[in-house]
Design goal:
351 residues, 14 helices, seven-stranded mixed sheet, Rossmann fold, magnesium ion binding (chains A, B), 7 strands, alpha/beta, homodimer, phosphoserine phosphatase (chains A, B), 15% strand, 2 domains
């Protein structure tokens, strides 16, 4: 795995993204008698890595009412749709979107097939690990890198490349696998919602085909419940074999206004719970808010410079500015990572 | 509801499409003891409207092996993906795709807002119920009708219009609601597959937002498991309200090569069971066939001129020619509607 420069200037990307962990796939199984079942339910904290307080309470209250038949806020199962962002919401996103690291590694891996890249921007700066020059080339340069690293191969090949990368690549500063940098409290939240028959969807600016090879294992979220940015594809027969080839052309940017569009395209229903961490999730929140069914907005605020990263209004990744004002003003659930979360990453549980 | 001309020449469409019935949402519930459970399972025919024979046997054999742990053809739950066409596979499609009738009715309904349509083709021929002239204008004319009837409004409005129409509109010759023209044996097959933990997806040339308002109730297939043709959309705030507006621009034609593309976009996995009725489903069959997991192709052959319609190689709707040869040659499950199905429509059960 190539080493990247340690100085990452903030940068805008088209956005793209991943995860792993000891994701619990089932709620605790209870014993056979009714009494023990009830006792267990009362005594088992569904969100053990969350500190008690207003945020945790608001989530548990919402779910309890939504699943209590006869309650005015009861929600029918088919309407229990949850949409959650990925980068900065389910896993970390600093110093840059993890999918960008994938793209950079892929350019290194492909370099031998493209000797001309040595002297051609934006590839030259990637191959020289010169992030500053790369970033100076702006969105156009990044887009070229993303396309060169993501397109031109079949969907099967791409899935296999992502799988191999995610299984081995290391985060430049945390020195952990990227899928170890998922948020333990969010894994618990997904698990809790699924146990209460909410259908959980990822709705991410990250690439849909970058996420699908690992979201099932890491988050217990099926491939068909992952919504993300996409490039166009083409079906063809290569040597008689049916193949879907990835084209170097944007299909959907699943960020900002693209999130409700993606939700409508893939889910066909407004969410009742929307979870995000940045201004890029605001339109998704509004879309959930426009649901005629009772709904909940949850915002993750990165406040922990020790265990994770602390950033909001000034950050060029996961900028949380306009949405921070609106979340405070409207009383949306605002997760203060430093205060609300006992641990950040699953490996802290094992320490 | 406007009456259409009774003479429908065959026509090509971009393809688009619906259903209703006494769709059983659950498998028969069994009594409490193990013995009764086993007896029930053995004695209950999961496909009661299917005549015994090679076709029924091949389906039940496939499902039984796929769900028997330890069997070499066992399929893990997450891989149990079923994709089924809609028009001509789950409901009838003659004398024309039902969604076209919706489009024509919609043009009539909108006519008062567009006085210029009276003298302007292709609208003029629609308003005069002159199908021959309409069809003579070819795909361009049909596309204009589809766009004028499907675009320019919000997704919420469109869903509500479809719901109202499907609840009341009548088929021109059968004199039944369109959702009564679903195939009872297919409802049983969907129910049987779902009971065996297959995830059932519609993959149709029909419009995704034309199908979603009713597929849940009629087929017990959730909105997010419906894949179809789509037009582009735009997220915006109208009077401060979040709105998704339908644009008059094609996004995906989910037919032929578009079917594997749609499957990859929405599901991210190859099917293990693919069901269709026309040459337009052939690429979907090949995509399923390229699955490394054991898979099954099912083709519905319209052979019943009395109870439904009989057509195949020469039909301009649901043309079944190249695929008929390939199905026979490869030994795919070929459903002979006249021979294999005891009843066609659910209402026959009540007669």
């Amino acid at each position: 795995m190539k080493k990247h420069s340690q100085t990452f200037p903030c940068f805008l990307l088209l956005s793209f993204v991943i995860l792993f962990s000891s994701c619990q796939k089932q709620v605790d199984e209870t014993s056979s008698t009714e009494i023990i079942l009830e006792e267990n339910q009362e005594s088992t904290d569904p969100l053990p890595s969350w500190n008690d307080g207003k945020t945790k309470e608001s989530i548990i209250n919402f779910v309890t009412k939504a699943t209590t038949e006869g309650h005015p806020d009861f929600i029918k199962k088919e309407d229990r749709i949850v949409t959650t962002d990925n980068d900065g919401t389910l896993w970390s996103e600093q110093p840059a979107y993890f999918q960008l690291f994938f793209a950079l590694d892929r350019i290194h891996a492909l370099a031998s097939e493209h000797p001309e890249w040595k002297n051609k921007q934006p590839y030259k700066s990637v191959l020289e690990n010169d992030m500053k020059t790369l970033m100076a080339q702006g969105e156009k340069g990044i887009l070229e890198i993303v396309m060169a690293s993501h397109a031109g191969i079949s969907t099967d090949e791409f899935a296999s490349i992502v799988k191999d990368w995610i299984a081995t690549a290391q985060h430049p500063t945390k020195k952990k696998k990227y899928t170890e940098l998922v948020f333990q409290p969010m894994l618990e939240l997904i698990n809790y919602l699924q146990a209460n028959e909410f259908k959980t969807f990822i709705v991410s600016g990250g690439g849909i085909e970058f996420m699908r090879p690992w979201t099932e294992e890491v988050y217990n979220i099926p491939k068909d419940q992952v919504v993300g940015s996409s490039i166009k594809t083409k079906y063809e027969y290569k040597d008689g074999q049916p193949t879907i080839t990835r084209l170097a052309e944007i299909d959907l940017i699943d960020d900002k206004e693209g999130k409700p569009v993606g939700i409508n395209r893939y889910i066909g229903r407004k969410p009742v719970i929307a979870i995000g961490n940045s201004d890029g999730d605001l339109q998704m929140m509004h879309w959930a808010e426009s649901n005629s069914i009772k709904n909940l907005q949850i915002y993750i605020h990165h406040t922990d410079s020790t265990r994770e990263w602390a950033y909001d209004r000034e950050s060029h990744i996961g900028t949380f500015d306009k949405a921070l004002d609106e979340a405070s003003q409207k009383g949306w659930a605002l997760v203060d990572m430093a205060k609300d979360w006992k641990v950040i990453y699953p490996y802290e549980l094992k320490d």
